[in-house]
């Protein structure tokens, strides 16, 4: 897991920036989908890559960067919701916080809410698989690799999830 | 709100097009690079090492200074490594104090992860100095084990009971230390059961069983159908033969009679 040779900071930066270039949009979309708030999504995306940068600086060798980055983002989203539960909407409004002002374009947000509303109605197991399939256009193997589960299981979940979605459409 | 398939696809397409702007990306990278990464512990006592731990809040820095005065050796303790006489002060007094003075839950969790990463860098420094021995390994292990226990007590794990950042640090830590001192999380120890993977395996097995049962049923239905078809064919064959025989007799009998046979 850990390399014995000293960390080359230039090499580290190049690797980090190539990961950032490849996955920053993906993670931003994921955070926006999960939070429906542009500013929060920007913060969570930045935090995700900050943690990645910190880990890389400790010498940790990241074998599956996509899986690793997704997992950090997922943990941060969970953290965000746990933290935001403590702050009521009333308290935020009293402080002059306008939820809509921080949201992205209204058309995008309403479409996003529609999409999330339908996917989140499904059981937990199907949600991320369907999101990755329909929004990120990821293949079965890629989803399996990202989630760290078998391709067979992903395949089953996609098929069952699709059926359940069609039941919702009906 | 009810959604139809067309609307669903439209929403998915719209989200697919969402991207960060170049300005947002540059700002992010700049912020990330400006964030100070915890420095490797140094044997030369540095006041910045200690103060950086407490930079979260001015009050914390003030309290930390108070502790420094009280302990007297706080400076040196902050930069100490496992095996050093002041290491105990660092991990048993300074770090728990800093943690106790962090009130924001997210910052607390981040600090706990940082502490575990600090254990890794301490070991890396010892290895570089070739100054690692059984006593220092044991001291590091006790500190790291407490960090893991504290991490497990906090709610930073996802629904599958995993925090990949913690796991990566533990794996790196274990690669640096002798086997008896390897760290293990509850998931690794198997205390948390059934793990999500096991559940998934069970689900997969269930799917396979359903598939096998269905295959058996289908085979049975096909076999029954084939038997029925075979019987039908036999019956039809005998009926047709019978009818042909009768027709032949219908034709041949009058001829035979007319010829006087």
TrEMBL record, chain A:
UniProt-listed Pfam families: Sigma70_r2 (PF04542), Sigma70_r4_2 (PF08281)
Record keywords: DNA-binding, Sigma factor, Transcription, Transcription regulation
InterPro entries given in the database record: RNA_pol_sigma-70-like, RNA_pol_sigma-70_dom, RNA_pol_sigma70_r2, RNA_pol_sigma70_r4_t2, RNA_pol_sigma_r2, RNA_pol_sigma_r3/r4-like, WH-like_DNA-bd_sf
CDD domains membership: Sigma70_r4 (cd06171)
UniProt entry tagged with the keyword Magnesium: no
UniProt keyword Iron-sulfur present: no
GO molecular function: DNA binding; sigma factor activity
Record-annotated RNA polymerase sigma-70 region domain positions: 19-85
Domain named RNA polymerase sigma factor 70 region 4 type: residues: 113-165
GO BP terms in the entry: DNA-templated transcription initiation
Family in the record: Belongs to the sigma-70 factor family. ECF subfamily.
PANTHER family in the record: RNA POLYMERASE ECF-TYPE SIGMA FACTO, RNA POLYMERASE SIGMA FACTOR HI_1459-RELATED
Protein name: RNA polymerase sigma factor
From TrEMBL, chain B:
Membrane-spanning residues: 59-78
Chain intervals with Acidic residues compositional bias: 196-209
Keyword tags: Membrane, Transmembrane, Transmembrane helix
Ranges for region Disordered: 193-214
Source taxon at top rank: Bacteria
Protein name as annotated: DUF5667 domain-containing protein
Biological classification of the source: Bacteria, Candidatus Kaiseribacteriota
């Amino acid at each position: 897991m850990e390399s014995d040779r000293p960390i080359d900071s230039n090499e580290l930066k190049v690797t980090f920036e190539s990961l950032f270039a490849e996955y920053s949009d993906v993670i931003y979309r994921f955070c926006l989908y999960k939070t429906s708030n542009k500013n929060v999504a920007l913060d969570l995306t930045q935090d995700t890559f900050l943690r990645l940068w910190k880990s890389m600086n400790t010498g940790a060798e990241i074998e599956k960067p996509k899986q690793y980055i997704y997992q950090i983002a997922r943990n941060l989203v969970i953290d965000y919701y746990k933290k935001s539960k403590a702050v009521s909407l009333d308290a935020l409004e009293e402080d002059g916080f306008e939820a809509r002002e921080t949201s992205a374009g209204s058309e995008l947000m309403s479409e996003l809410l529609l999409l999330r509303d339908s996917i989140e109605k499904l059981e937990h197991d199907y949600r991320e698989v369907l999101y990755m399939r329909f929004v990120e256009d990821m293949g079965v193997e890629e989803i399996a690799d990202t989630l760290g589960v078998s391709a067979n299981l992903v395949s089953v979940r996609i098929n069952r999830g699709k059926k359940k979605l069609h039941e919702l459409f009906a | 709100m009810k959604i139809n398939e067309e609307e669903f696809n439209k929403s998915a397409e719209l989200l697919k097009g969402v991207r960060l702007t170049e300005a947002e990306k540059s700002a992010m990278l700049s912020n990330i690079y400006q964030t100070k990464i915890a420095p490797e512990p140094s044997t030369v006592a540095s006041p910045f090492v200690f103060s950086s731990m407490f930079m979260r809040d001015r009050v914390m820095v003030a309290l930390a200074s108070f502790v420094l005065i009280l302990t007297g050796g706080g400076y040196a303790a902050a930069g100490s490594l496992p095996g050093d006489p002041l290491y105990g002060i660092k991990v048993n007094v300074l770090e728990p104090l800093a943690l106790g003075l962090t009130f924001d839950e997210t910052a607390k969790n981040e600090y706990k992860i940082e502490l575990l990463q600090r254990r890794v860098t301490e070991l890396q420094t010892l290895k570089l100095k070739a100054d690692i021995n059984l006593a220092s390994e044991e001291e590091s292990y006790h500190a790291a084990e407490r960090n893991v226990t504290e991490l497990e007590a906090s709610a930073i794990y996802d629904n599958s009971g995993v925090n990949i950042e913690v796991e990566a640090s533990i794996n790196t830590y274990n690669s640096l230390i002798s086997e008896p001192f390897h760290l293990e999380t509850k998931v690794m120890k198997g205390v948390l059961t059934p793990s999500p993977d096991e559940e998934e395996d069970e689900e997969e097995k269930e799917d396979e069983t359903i598939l096998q049962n269905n295959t058996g049923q289908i085979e049975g239905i096909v076999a029954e159908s084939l038997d029925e078809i075979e019987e039908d064919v036999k019956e039809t064959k005998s009926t047709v033969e019978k009818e042909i025989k009768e027709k032949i007799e219908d034709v041949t009998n009058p001829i035979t009679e007319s010829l006087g046979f």
